[in-house]
């Protein structure tokens, strides 16, 4: 351990179970010397193991709906009471699409559900920061991080309206990052993580295939939830005090690739199999005509 976060305090949104990136961040933050408060919706807490994690890490769990300003105000107040004052970092690890869960395709969205997707997955990030700023809850040179995905910039089949949410999330980080940086020297960044088999991510169509493709395309392979947690900690630390308003790719190099040798090998094998199948079909048809 490096004591990267010794003396620092922060709120972590979204720890549900061991698959969660937020869960890994919480554990690693405490290992690196931080004090934390965990939060998630009451329903998610009942489905997951957030309270158990809080007990394990010797901290508190405060239920809060990140789309509710009232809930966020109570959360910030409770966290400041627990910490005895201001704190230093926030992780926003929240994302959910009702359209994806209901199997609605992108060209047949329910617009009411789209609004919920945007509110939960992106606008909640703005609400968190607006409430924290109005309460002057974060120390100067603090750090706020949200988790994103490359579908904000590129079209990836099956990611659906979550792509729109991630694009909005990244825009909010830039816009609020300017204000928070100018006024309080507080950094705001997003991390574009490799596809990760979290509980929320498992709802994305074809996740297994997407993970295999990105792993074959990435020179370093996919980044795991624990890898991501370690990267998040560097952004919470004092080592990145001048990094803000950025979308930082943490994907093993996937975002800079066009085609890798490993991916090309699989593609070539499939082409050869298709060509062989077509040739066999032509021969069969020719024989059947005789």
UniProtKB/TrEMBL annotation:
GO molecular-function term, one example from the UniProt record: enoyl-[acyl-carrier-protein] reductase (NADH) activity
GO BP annotations, alphabetical order: fatty acid biosynthetic process
Superkingdom of origin organism: Bacteria
Enzyme Commission designation: 1.3.1.9
Keywords: Fatty acid biosynthesis, Fatty acid metabolism, Lipid biosynthesis, Lipid metabolism, NAD, Oxidoreductase
Reaction equations catalysed: a 2,3-saturated acyl-[ACP] + NAD(+) = a (2E)-enoyl-[ACP] + NADH + H(+)
Zinc is among the record's keywords: no
Active site: 149 (proton acceptor), 159 (proton acceptor)
Binding-site residues for NAD(+), renumbered to this chain: 14, 20-21, 94, 166
Enzyme type, top EC level: oxidoreductase
Pfam families attached to this UniProt entry: adh_short_C2
Transmembrane intervals: none
Claim: Iron is one of the keywords in the record: no
Pathway: Lipid metabolism; fatty acid biosynthesis
Coiled-coil regions, chain positions: none
Family: Belongs to the short-chain dehydrogenases/reductases (SDR) family. FabI subfamily.
Protein name per the record: Enoyl-[acyl-carrier-protein] reductase [NADH]
């Amino acid at each position: 351990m490096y004591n990267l976060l010794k003396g620092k305090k922060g709120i972590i949104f979204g720890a549900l179970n061991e698959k969660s990136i937020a869960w890994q961040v919480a554990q690693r933050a405490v290992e690196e010397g931080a004090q934390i408060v965990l939060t998630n919706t009451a329903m998610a807490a009942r489905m997951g193991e957030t309270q158990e994690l809080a007990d394990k890490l010797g901290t508190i769990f405060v239920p809060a709906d990140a789309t509710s300003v009232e809930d966020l105000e109570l959360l910030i107040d409770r966290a400041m009471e627990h910490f005895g004052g201001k704190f230093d970092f926030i992780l926003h690890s929240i994302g959910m699409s009702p359209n994806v869960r209901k199997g609605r395709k992108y060209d047949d969205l329910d617009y009411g559900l789209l609004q919920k997707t945007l509110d939960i997955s992106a606008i909640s990030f703005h609400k968190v920061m607006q409430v924290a700023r109005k309460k002057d809850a974060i120390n100067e040179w603090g750090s706020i991080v949200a988790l994103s995905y490359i579908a904000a910039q590129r079209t990836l089949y099956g990611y659906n309206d979550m792509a729109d949410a991630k694009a909005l999330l990244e825009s909010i980080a830039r816009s609020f990052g300017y204000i928070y940086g100018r006024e309080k020297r507080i950094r705001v960044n997003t991390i574009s993580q490799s596809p990760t088999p979290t509980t929320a991510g498992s709802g994305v169509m074809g996740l297994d295939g997407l993970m295999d493709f990105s792993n074959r395309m990435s020179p370093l392979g996919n980044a795991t939830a624990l890898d991501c947690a370690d990267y998040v900690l560097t952004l919470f630390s004092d080592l990145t005090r001048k990094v803000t308003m950025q979308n930082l790719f943490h994907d093993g190099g996937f975002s800079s690739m066009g085609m890798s040798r490993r991916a090309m090998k699989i593609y070539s094998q499939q082409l050869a199999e298709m060509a062989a199948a077509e040739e066999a079909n032509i021969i069969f048809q020719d024989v059947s005509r005789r």
